[in-house]
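Below is how a single chain appears once it has passed through the pipeline. First comes the sequence as given, then the structure the pipeline wrote out for it. We keep one example in the README because the format questions we get most often are answered faster by looking than by reading.
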Amino acid sequence: MRPRVGVVFGFLVIAGAIALGAAVVGRVNAQDWRTASQEPVGLAPDPATHPEAVVQVYAARVIGWRGAFGVHTWIAVKPAAASQYTVYEIIGWRLRWQDNALAIRHRAPDARWFGSMPELIAEKRGPDAAGLIPRIDVAARAYPWAGEYTMWPGPNSNTFTAWVLRTVPELEADLPPTAIGKDYSGKKLLTSAPSGRGFQFSLFGLAGVTASGVEGLELNFLGLTFGVNPFDPALKLPLVGRVGPSRVNSTGADQTVGQHSG
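Resulting structure:
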């Protein structure tokens, strides 16, 4: 009886994931990227009224059918007293006209990604954030695959974000399981988890295992992530993302915002 219950439960989880994925596809494909909203959604402190330093990590579903499977991630920083944010991200289509996909530019950090609502994955404010900003800049500019982009299994935009986070583990950012490419580490088979904590064994981003006090336990199979996080209780599934209660901590100075579903 117990094996049958497990099979039924597994079937329901997979069926639910497929149904949700289909819904996401329908929602994303209904939008034209040329007219899709890129308006900010109010997750980033206004520089005019918040002079403290800020570091934020975001994720949003990508446009088109790929949005059923994955997200695009980026990192935004604002030094103390700065009037605008600087966003670091990899944009694959830049390689069509130049040899570098790394974009470092001023833009609204919490803007919709071609219509998709961004999620705030992690945040630091105040003196702690100020100390991290120079390290983020150095790590971003040292990203070794800026001249390459492969949607699956990487390197892609999520590979870049994980690269920076490994250098700045103080952010303790748990990238969503839908951040396909976060587990790609080139020829290096054993490294730290994408958060910079714990460890990760990854076979070119196609298969592997991750264990840390930030991510919990994750299994990667063909770029799809399955996992459980007992430290921030959540189940991690392909397509669906993180399933569990939102952990939203104080966003005051020197505080880290917990991970959301995504």
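The two ends are 34 Å apart (CA to CA).

See the next section for the split statistics.
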